[in-house]
Amino acid sequence: MKKKLLSALLILMLFVLSLFPALAQQSTYTKYSKGFFGTFDTWVSLIGYATKSETFEKAFSMAEQRFIQLHKLYDKYNPYEGINNIYTLNKQAAQGPVRVEEDLLNLLIYTKNLQALYPNTLNIAMGAVLDIWHSYREEALATPSRAALPPRSLLEEAAGHTSMDDVTIDEKNSTIYFEDPLLQLDVGAIAKGYATQLVANEMVAYGMPSFIISAGGNVASGDPPQDGRAGWSVGVQDPSGFVLDPLATIASIQVSHMAVVTSGDYQRYYEVDGKKYHHIIDPSTLLPADHVKQVTVITPDSGMADFLSTVLFVLPTQQALEIVETLEDTQACWITMDDQVITSSGWEAFLNN
Ligand code: AMP
Ligand code: MG
Q1: Residues 6 or more apart from 98 whose CB is under 8 A from it?
Q2: Looking at ligand 1, which atom is closest to the CA of residue 314?
């Protein structure tokens, strides 16, 4: 009698599983996660679903190696043996064309084309201005009593050497040449997101499509998790709570095949006379942009998301909102100076209930 009941149950189970092949397959996947520090100034973590731990381990090691390689390529502060990176370009590209590898050439082409669509927002040729802010910030953080604002004349002089038209990209020969000897590149506003997208593409090509990568405030996701959830949960930073609790969030969203990138005024800053001066500089004022505390962007490509996070941070919020409304598959959420939350029309659909 018992035996009969058991075999009836077994048949029923097999029948149910045959109705839902995804369910049967799902149980064979395990969730793995691992992270590392050392690239792009941030902790990078990878979560993935795989049928074997070796599959995930290999994916993780590929991702780590690739992040290290791309970090070196987009680094403006350090040279590396045998690599022509942003540092090399800033030192040598005004003397003559410098040959660069594909991942750097492509980043520069991609950004040059994109930034032309949004003048006076993001400009990777603004390195000379950003360098001044960087050294004043470093000085203030090391010796707070010496905290000061950069002299206006210094910023304006540097601003005369920030035209992307002076960066000649020779696609055929893979070379970069600066027409202006005082021009400096800084790809900090886009490099991390662009690199994250390249790694995300490799996760798919390698055969681990269900993953999420988080590099600081920069997330790229693939297929949904293999546990039945419709997407990956991503927290949206609470800008006011950041100093006390970097994990505090104002919202949780759910995504798959989407990137989520945040730019915020709390990420890097110093204070002069009790006022905060952060790291995202408005090219039209040469001062830190002061419309919002934070903007978070959801869009399919992580390079685009990083690009937009900076553009939408620099622009007046109404204008930024109008731009987002014209972009396909793109949503954004701003936290204003007085903690109002402004969202684009499709933002709510991403919220976790
Ligand atoms: P993000 O956090 O993506 O908004 O990028 C901020 C970083 O981009 C800064 O640390 C600078 O290196 C650089 N940056 C700041 N302002 C600008 C700007 N207006 N255009 C291009 N890069 C910028
Ligand atoms: Mg950005």
Answers
A1: 84, 88, 89, 92, 175, 176, 177
A2: 19
DSSP 190: T
pLDDT tens readout for residues 121-137: 999 999 999 999 999 99
- The secondary structure element, H or E, covering residue 45 is strand 42-50
pTM of the model: 0.91
- The whole-angstrom separation of Cα 187 and Cα 100 is 15
Report how far residue 174's alpha carbon sits from residue 325's, in angstroms, rounded to the nearest whole number: 36
Residues contacting ligand 1 via CB (< 6 Å): 122-124, 126, 130, 186, 188-189, 263, 267-268, 279-281, 283, 306, 309-310, 313-314
The closest of 328, 264, 279 to 301, measured between CA atoms, is 328
Q: Each residue of 276-324: pLDDT tens digit?
A: 999 999 999 999 999 999 999 999 999 999 999 999 999 999 999 999 9
CB 87 within 8 A of CB 147: no
Strands 98-99 and 167-170: unpaired
Rounded to the nearest whole angstrom, what is the distance from the C-alpha of residue 282 to the centroid of ligand 2? 13
Question: SS3 for 114?
Answer: helix
- The whole-angstrom separation of Cα 73 and Cα 76 is 9
Phi/psi of residue 189, each to 5°? Answer: -80, -10
